[in-house]
Amino acid sequence: MNIFIPYLHYIGIMTLMGALIAEHLMMKPGMRKSEINSLSAVDAIYGISAILVLVTGLLRWFIVDPKGADFFTHNHMFHVKVTLFIIMAILSIFPTIRIMKWRKKAKSEPNFEPSTKDVKKQLMFIRIELLLIVVIPLLAVMVARGTGH
Question: What is this structure's pTM?
Answer without folding.
Answer: 0.92
